[in-house]
Every structure is written in structure tokens, then in C-alpha cells.
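Anyone able to model this chain together with thymidine-5'-diphosphate?
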Amino acid sequence: MTESKKKVLITGGAGFIGSHVVRQFVTGYPNYEITNLDALTYAGNLENIRDVENAENYHFVKGDIKDAGFLLELFEKEKYDAVIHLAAESHVDRSITNPNEFIETNVMGTANLMNAFLAAHQDSFEGKLFYHVSTDEVYGSLGKEGLFTETTPYDPQSPYAASKASSDHLVRAYGNTYGMPFVISNCSNNYGSHQFPEKLIPLFIHNIKNKKELPVYGDGQYTRDWLYVVDHARAIDEIFHKAKLGQTYNIGGFNEWTNLDLIHVLCKIMDRKLDQEPGSSAQLIRFVKDRAGHDRRYAIDAGKLNRDLGWAPSVTFEEGLEKTVDWYLSNPDWLEHVTSGAYQDYYEKMYG
Ligand code: NAD
Ligand code: TYD
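re: yes, here you go
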């Protein structure tokens, strides 16, 4: 897509990654009109984008992608040129206890959004784009060797992964059947500021701060490939502007860690930041019952994105983790707000 004036709808912009994408586009492209559409579920929080909410090129619309009629009307009126679709239910553990919510939002919600996009542009798709943001979890689990590439067959293992895989298939099918102009990216595990403290890194920062146990699933030898969220937002920016239509890009940090090794690094940083005896945080580690169907290893080959578009991560894992810890420690109010109320019930059910 070119950088000329356009109307861009970002869905899920009040969530973790979406808020960084909103920031990237609102500050980077003053000539775009950016609308953030978000239902403000437990994971969506307008505090995440407080710094850009008064920008002239930014609007917020509260709305649910499960509501097909609402989307048709919105698109009919606004005729967005491009969509960057991030709104989703995103936590694997919640998908195990409540799969239907994931199917409704991630599968049906994506179909509703594409139907509205198609209806608004039935005369011509010239200069239009539907960008679908997805995950590496669609590829399933790797053994000790190998990396996910863009041609790895889909083999999703959790209800979350299966719902994202379904939405990816639907996007490609709409491209093939209706000529809908699209791109898809599949990214590895993100970390950084504004991530809801149900995911590993912010949960453990929050627990260490509050001297609560650190629940490590199974043997802790599960491997993930971690990427700093700002680098994901930069990659989305590159792909949005430079990718050929119909392409898929894998995004990853070239940065594999077993959960246990990562947790030990995090514990050391926390001991230093909190001025504690070395080893204090690690004493909170507890091995707990494993997650059902837990994928052993994810690792991304982001070579295509690097070769085609010149993207590479801008920070090392150590730098990113340091910045992340600093953000959580200097924003206690944010943590306080998101962990009050319903969070307590979730925590009790999950770990209590
Ligand atoms: P998140 O859970 O932090 O945020 C999701 C956002 O979507 C929230 O603001 C929520 O209010 C909104 N939302 C949920 N249901 C909605 C609905 N029905 N209608 C409108 N808005 C709704 O998620 P995240 O971690 O920021 O992930 C964003 C996207 O990136 C997701 O599509 C996810 O699959 C994908 N992704 C995430 C990761 C990761 O590590 N977190 C990695 C790769 C891809
Ligand atoms: P998570 O942040 O939920 O991301 P994903 O499941 O999408 O990879 O989990 C990252 C890893 O950490 C995963 O292997 C599960 C593990 N984990 C724990 O060991 N304990 C926890 O309390 C959580 C939330 C995750």
C-alpha cells in the first residue's frame, strides 16, 4: 500500500499488540485517518493508548466484530480503505476453558469483518487491503529441530490455535474466491509494555512484585521464540506498506528460550530492580500441573521478511526485557486497574 491519504481501520487497538500498532500508525502517518475498533473486553483497555487518543488523525469506535449488522453499517458509512485486523480472543488457557468464545470472535468475527469490507468495496478493490494478523501457533508444535516457514503445513493444537488457523484459511479463501486483496502475518510470542498479566512474562513480573508463587507448567522445558512488541508493530508497518498482495510473512525474534531459562533471567532482573538478595525471586518458582495439549516448541524462520522487506528486530532480548520490567514497575496504577475485579476470579479459577 502506498503512503497517500487513506482511512485505516485497526481492530483490537485497545489490546496489547493492537495498542502498539495504533501508536506506530498514528504517530508515523499523520496523513492517514486511523480508526480503532475495539469491544473493550477484559483484555482491551483505553489506558493503553492514552498517549495518542487526542491526536487529530485518531478515532475510537466501541464495537464488537461478532455483530455482523453493526460492521456492515459502519463500513457502508466509512468505506475504510484498509483494515489491520488484530481483534481476537488471544489466551490459550482461556480457550481451553471456553472454546466457543474463541470460535465466535476469531472465526465468525473475522468472517463478519471481511463480509463488511467486501460489501463496502464491491465496485472496486483498487488500492484496498485487508491485513490479517495471526500467530505461529497455527503451525502446531516443533520437535527439537527445525523452524516454521511460510509453507509449513497448518497443524493447530489448541482451540485458540485452531480458531486462528480457521481465520487464516478464511482470509485466503476470500482472496481466492472474491479477489479480496489481503496479506497475512504469523508472529511468534510477543512481550513488552501493556500486555495483560495472564501471559507468562507480565504475570510473572506481577507475581514477583507481589511475592506470589510463579506457576511453571509441567517441566518448564517448553520453548518459545520471543519478540519485542514494538518490533512486531514495525514489521506490520513494513508488510502493510511493502508486501505484495496475497503474501504471508512469518515474524519472529530469532530468539528461542525454554520457559525455565527465561524465568531465571527475569528473576535476576527483578531481584536487581527491586533491590533484593540475588535468588529471592527464583524461590517463588513452583512446578504446577501442565497445560492440556501444551505445544512443546515454537520457533520462527523470519528470513523471508528479512530478505524481502529488510526487517530485523531492533532490540536484543536482554534490552527488551529490561525495558518491559521497567515499564511494569513504573506503571503500578495500570497493573492495579487491570488486576482488580474479574482478574481475581480468573486467577483463583486458574491457579487457586
Ligand atoms: P489481546 O488479548 O491483548 O487484545 C485483543 C483485543 O481485541 C482487546 O483489545 C479486546 O478488547 C479486542 N477484542 C476481543 N474480542 C473482540 C470483539 N469481539 N470485537 C472487537 N474487539 C475485540 O491480544 P494481543 O496479544 O494483543 O493479540 C492481538 C492479535 O495478535 C491477535 O489476533 C492474536 O491472535 C495475534 N498474535 C498475538 C501474539 C502474542 O504473543 N500476544 C502473537 C502472535 C499473534
Ligand atoms: P503464554 O504467555 O500463555 O503464551 P503461549 O501459550 O501463547 O505460548 O505462555 C508462554 C509459555 O509459558 C507457554 O509454554 C506456557 C507457559 N506458562 C507457564 O508455564 N505458566 C503460566 O502461568 C503461563 C501463563 C504460561
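The chain has a mean pLDDT of 97.
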